[in-house]
Amino acid sequence: MRTIRGPGLFLAQFARDTPPHNTLPGIARWAKAYGYKAIQIPTWDDRFFDLDRAYESEAYCDEIKGALADIGVAVSELSTHFQGQMVSVHPAYDALFDGQCPASVRGNPEKRRHWAADQVRKAARVSRRFGLTEHVSFTGSLAWPYFYPYPQRPVGLIEECFAEQGRRWKPILDVYEEHGVDLCFEIHPSEDIFDGDSFDMFLDAVGGHKRCAINYDASHFIKQCMDYLGFIDAYHDRIKMFHVKDAEFNPTAKQGVYGGYKGWLERAGRDRSLGDGQVDFKAIFSKLAAYDFAGWAVYEWECCLQHPEVAARKGAQFIADHIIEVTDRVFDDFAATGADRLTNLKLLGIRG
């Protein structure tokens, strides 16, 4: 068994236009001061990172690695959540996604799709330049508007959706194989893979690709009333990344799982700062340790109540307190009998 690495911090939700949260060195020093050992970098935020430049210039990557090493913070992973989501966009969301992509591809869904896929492919090479073996992204969604089957879905609609996802993502996964990097998809409502069954359909569509992996985040499961601990048992061999995010689900007489029209504060299912929700992190860290999870425990903050500065400060210690320093021996070794095979056979009443 190996000890989980951490704590790490996903920078996306902590970015600001004011110091220290508006530059990579500034936010890295800020994170380091709170006890974080690594940062997960959103590659779409040019205040922190230029993915195109990193793809073209190894010197640029070395410069960033050197600066972060001087600060004493590692890079846990790179993220292309925004770009990955734009690999597959249902037309209903075209206008919304145009607000998150470069001006040069706005108003042209096909051009935007190719740009997004190219970004995710570039991240494979850049991840390798940083010495990373995992990367996190979204699949995007073609079928999400049809997730609840009324009017009745036409026969073959979902199958065609995942066939198309396979056509789009398998060539990208092949690039990740070339660079020795696992592409970890965050299983998330609004994506075509939002639970175990949909991940299975996606995995089948990409031919069981060895680089198709999972970024585990229990917050997305507790809000769907899923068995988030059993999920680890089912998919531990595919779980290569870990977002530590808390959440709660408090159904009322007026609202349940589909309470998405309300604001975050008023939803039955909502994200919370670490320790303020319902996720059993002791059990999660224990299961991941038992399954020899070798990655980083990375805090993703999306609480609708607590101030991010307070959450960041408390979150580092919360993760550190939950990481299990795994044992290198069995507790009852002191009572070992030193018996050999012949003794074992004799104990069983079997002649050697």
Description:
With 352 residues, the chain is of the alpha/beta class. The chain has one domain: TIM Barrel (Alpha-Beta Barrel). It has 13 helices and 10 strands. The strands form 2 sheets. It has an 8-stranded parallel barrel, surrounded by 5 helices. A two-stranded antiparallel sheet has the order 8-9. Strand 4, helix 7 (157-179) and strand 5 (182-186) form a beta-alpha-beta unit. Helix 6 runs parallel beside helix 7 (157-179). The radius of gyration is 22 Å and the shape is globular. The relative contact order is 0.13. The mean pLDDT is 96.
Give descriptors for this structure.
TIM Barrel, 14% strand, globular, two-stranded antiparallel sheet, 352 residues, 39% helix, alpha/beta, 8-stranded parallel β-barrel
CATH superfamily: Divalent-metal-dependent TIM barrel enzymes
Shape: globular
CATH architecture classification: Alpha-Beta Barrel
Structural class based on helices, strands and sheet pairing = alpha/beta
Task: Count every beta strand, where a strand is a DSSP E run of 2 or more residues.
Answer: 10
Strand order, sheet with most strands: 1-2-3-4-5-6-7-10
Largest sheet: 8 strands, parallel, barrel
Tell me the name of the CATH class.
Answer: Alpha Beta
Order of helices and strands: EHEHHEHHHEHEHEHHEEEHEHH
Radius of gyration: 22 Å
* Count of DSSP H/I helices: 13
Strand content: 5-15%
The N- to C-terminal Cα distance equals: 34 Å
CATH topology type: TIM Barrel
